[in-house]
């Protein structure tokens, strides 16, 4: 009887081992499957990262190429503008006043030899395409003083015909005393404004009074 019980016990012990082995095998199989899923997800994420990086690099390359083209275009436009500026400068430097006129900076000056009133002098200058001059600087005033070599006074484009005692230039700007000494102005001239290139030039004439 004891032998039968031992045999049964041994059989029970022997039959338990396969069941434990099956449980262990199933656990390992599940762990391997989970690892495979994680590895697959990592591969997908890595592939997505590579694709995103490739797209980013392509966009960066496209942006760089566009910026390079824009830079080259701006350089061409700059070079063209420099050429145009040089051409305009040559035209301005090569500009000559009409015969009998004197040039100072961007202005042409002319002194007539006839004695006339301010109004008649202004009309005469307008026939020449000019008008009585507006003196804007001490340098211009000094040039005009050197321009005529007689003791006669000359008319300038200054008048109080609109409001007596209120002196204005022929273009309507008020008189300032910055460029004049005490008792001045007491000389005269004519001005005509003409657009040459991008410079506003004054073509002028002097007329004795």
Automatic annotation (TrEMBL):
Gene3D superfamilies: Mannose-Binding Protein A, subunit A (3.10.100.10). It comes from the Eukaryota. Residues 104-209 form the C-type lectin domain. It holds the Pfam family Lectin_C. One of its GO terms (molecular function) is carbohydrate binding. InterPro entries: C-type_lectin-like, C-type_lectin-like/link_sf, C-type_lectin/snaclec_domain, CD209-like_CTLD, CTDL_fold. Residues 64-91 form a coiled coil. The chain crosses the membrane at residues 34-56. The keyword Glycoprotein does not apply. PROSITE patterns: C_TYPE_LECTIN_2. Keywords: Coiled coil, Lectin, Membrane, Transmembrane, Transmembrane helix. This is C-type lectin domain-containing protein. It comes from Hucho hucho (huchen).
């Amino acid at each position: 009887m004891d032998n039968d019980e031992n045999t049964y016990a041994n059989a029970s012990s022997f039959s338990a081992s396969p069941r434990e082995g099956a449980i262990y095998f199933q656990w390992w199989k599940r762990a391997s499957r989970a690892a495979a899923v994680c590895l697959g997800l990592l591969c997908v994420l890595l592939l997505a990262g590579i694709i995103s990086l490739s797209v980013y690099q392509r966009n960066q390359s496209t942006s760089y190429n566009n910026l390079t083209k824009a830079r080259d275009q701006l350089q061409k436009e700059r070079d063209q503008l420099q050429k145009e500026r040089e051409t305009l400068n040559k035209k301005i430097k090569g500009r000559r006043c009409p015969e009998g006129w004197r040039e100072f900076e961007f202005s042409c000056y002319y002194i007539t030899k006839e004695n006339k009133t301010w109004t008649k002098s202004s009309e005469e200058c307008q026939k020449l395409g000019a008008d009585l001059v507006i003196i804007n600087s001490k340098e211009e005033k000094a040039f005009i003083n050197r321009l005529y070599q007689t003791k006669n006074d000359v008319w300038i484009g200054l008048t109080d015909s609109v409001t007596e005692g209120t002196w204005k230039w022929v273009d309507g700007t008020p008189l300032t005393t910055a460029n004049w000494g005490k008792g001045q102005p007491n000389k005269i001239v004519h001005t005509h404004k003409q657009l040459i290139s991008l410079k506003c030039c004054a073509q002028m004439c002097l007329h004795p009074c």
